[in-house]
Every structure is written in structure tokens, then in C-alpha cells.
Amino acid sequence: MRKSEAKELINQAYAAWEAEEWQRAADLYEQVLAHFPDEKPSAEWWYDAALGHKFLRNWDKAYELGVQAAARAPRGEGDPAYWNLGIAATIRRDWAVARDAWTGFGLELPAGEGEIDGRFGHACVRLDTHGQREVVWIERLCPTRGRVMNVPVTGGRRYGEIVLHDGQPNGERVVDGSTYPVFDELLLFEPSELPTLQVTVAAGEPADLEALITLFADHDFGAEPASGLTTHCACCSEGTLHKEPRTAHEGAQRVCLAAPEDEARGLLDRWAGEKAIGRSWSGLEVMG
After folding, report:
1. Cα–Cα distances in Å, from 234 out to 135, 171, 187, 190?
2. Which of 48, 171, 200, 266 has its CA 20 to 30 A from that of 78?
């Protein structure tokens, strides 16, 4: 291939990219890279080709091309080639490459080998289940994975599942003056076995409901008032939303739970039995 031909193909690739024709753009880049893998601008071509396959959710190709892009990127300077490779390697559970990619980006990881199980703070993820979207809180385990800490209302989604999310925030939530990013889900990484339940509880005072939430949390289960769910349009959801800290209140109310049904009944009985007056429950239902 002559350089003049390569230049024309690259121009076609740029045009396809602008039109969001990811497959065509990636194919054109690869045609050129097969002949000119190490030209001065080739690092950009490798990156765009890998990114196109990321958009297509073709993770094997995103990984293959991402390795080449990262090999041509400066280490420790936040180059996005490493981030995209970290995502693709994590999806393939290639932990050695994922760890090297995050380090190459400039992040500090927990010492060790294998799967990354760290404490990267809290964030939100916009779950996407066949077009149904729901923003939930997660505990971040690594730069791209997090454990869901809410009881989702979307069918088929569960408390405790591990989701893999994109690296570019798409919105933010502000709570008590602290700002948390909202990431878009890329895929469900590990499902949770905890079913979703709903129950009606009567709480004599706000502290009673907080005690129930704490009791379930102490057993690695979930519990939260159903009234905590709010609905936003896509424009608002992808912007900055100021959220009030969770506040419990007294009275009869529906509560979402994440626990095996028998254990949930036992914990509800224990909670109700801790006070002679002011606590009761009824109508436990399995929702999914």
C-alpha cells in the first residue's frame, strides 16, 4: 500500500467516524495499520480503531487493538488508551493486563495479583436493562466495576450485583456538599442471588426504620424505603441533581428488601420483637 492510498483511507475513516459508522471506521483504520503500524500518527489510529469496537461492544477486538494502542501511549499521564484497555481486559477477566492498564493510566491499585477488589469510593451507575434505566449507588471495586448498594426496582436487577461501567461520567449527584459521578453501565459483570422483596412495616418513630435498615445491612442484605425512588427525565438525570440525604420517617410504609425470603422473615420478626410497641410488619412479597 502506498502512503497516498493510506492517506485516502484515513480520510475515509475520519468521515465514517464523524458519521458514527464505527465498524466501517475501524475496518479502514485496520487496513492502514496492517501496512503502517508505527507511523507517527498510528497511535491515534490504533486508539480510534479500538474505541470504535468499544462502541460496538466488540470486546475481543477492543482488547486486541487496545493492547496496540496502549503500547504506543505514554505511561502515567492519563492517556485514555489505557483506560479503554483496562475496561476490555476486565471484561475478559485478564487481570494482569487490566492491572497494567490502570497503572499505565496513572492509578494506584491495591497490591497483589488477580482480580482487583479495592475501595475506590462511592459513585452512581445508570443501569440499562433493555431500555429501562435506573440510577443506583455503587461501591467501586476497581476503576470500572462496582457493587450495587440499592435495591433496584427494575425487573431482573438485584442488590449486590456487580456492574461494569464506562469511564466518562454522564451526570452527577450532590449529597451534603459532596459530588459523585454518574457512570453509564456497560454490562452486568456478576449477578446477585439475593431476591427482591417488598414488605409493609409500621415504625413508631424514625429510629425504628433506621434500626431495620441497619439490621439488614449487618447481614449483608439490603433494605430501603420504597418512597426513596424518584423519577427524572433523561435531561435532568444526565445533569447535576442535588439529592437530600436519606431520612427515615415513622408510620406505615412499604420497604424494599434484598434477602432470601426465609431470612428476611426472621430478621423482620427479630426487628419487631425488639420493642413491645411501635414495630410490626405484614404483606411480605417476592418481587423478583
Report:
1. 11, 10, 20, 26
2. 171
Query: Half-sphere exposure of 14 toward its Cβ, with a 13 Å CA cutoff?
Result: 7
pLDDT in tens, 83-111: 999 999 999 999 999 999 999 999 999 98
Q: Is 151 within 8 Å of 222 (Cβ atoms)?
A: yes
- Residue in the structure block whose three cell numbers are 426513596: 228
> Which three-class secondary structure state does DSSP give residue 239?
coil
CATH number of 3-105: 1.25.40.10
pTM: 0.89
3-state secondary structure at position 216:
helix
**Separation in Å, CA 105 to CA 26, 66, 116:** 23, 13, 16
Residue ranges, CATH 3.30.70, the chain: 196-286
The C-alpha angle with vertex 46 and arms to 71 and 18, in degrees rounded to 5, equals: 150
Question: What's the CA gap between 21 and 197, in Å, rounded?
Answer: 43
C-alpha closest to that of 280 among 246, 252, 260: 252
Across-strand partners of 257? 197, 223
CATH number, span 196-286: 3.30.70
- H helix runs in 92-192, sequence order: 95-105
Which single residue is written with the C-alpha cell 494506584? 108
